[in-house]
């Protein structure tokens, strides 16, 4: 059984004070929740505060990105060893906004994935196609390429630590959402490609999340699909009540 993971990506929102205010409201709402894992990916300036505030709870915290090297002359970057040093346990890799605005390539995602696994950080590798690629009938080709690049040189023995998030670029922050069937089909493509590179057993165990305009009123229908193992939530995770409803509705 793949235990669902419901994750919040706060992007470039929330100061440390705002993050702690969120948690003071959110944590009591989900303290008895055991049906799924819960993770929050705050801004780097808030990450240490969120890690401390969630200790001893059923919520974990992760970073939104990282460099693949442990140190070096890379102004503005954060290394995996730095994340380890503050008790970080998870990291997002290859989010489409990082690919678009920070010009991260598939090769960079691969390097980051290898580094995350080496440092026992649970990686959430993001993949997804643009509207143009979908309309051109290239969704499968894009997903297979991104997965093949990300998993290049990765040992199948490490797959239990990995998570993949399917985030169609055309659905991120747009209000558009893939239908449950569209999302499930994309997840099935991803799982088949994982099997090619890491084996059937690994593919069957790996959690694949859906992300893209997930809200309290659509998460339950998405979670009915057999290939969908959770959600990576953007805008709807910024309010404690909304994100708590998503966590609860996902296991309804």
In short:
The protein has helices spanning 16-30, 44-54, 80-85, 96-101, 106-118, 131-135, 139-150, 180-198, 200-205, 219-223, 240-250; strands at residues 5-9, 37-41, 59-63, 90-93, 122-127, 163-166, 207-211, 230-233. The radius of gyration is 17 Å and the shape is globular. The protein is 43% helix and 15% strand.
Structure description:
The chain is of the alpha/beta class and 252 residues long. 43% of the residues lie in helices and 15% in strands. The protein has a single domain (5-250), classed as TIM Barrel. It is built from eleven helices and eight strands. Strands 1-2-3-4-5-6-7-8 form an eight-stranded parallel β-barrel, surrounded by five helices. Helix 1 packs parallel to helix 2, helix 1 runs parallel beside helix 11 (240-250) and helix 7 (139-150) packs parallel to helix 8 (180-198). The chain starts with a strand and ends with a helix.
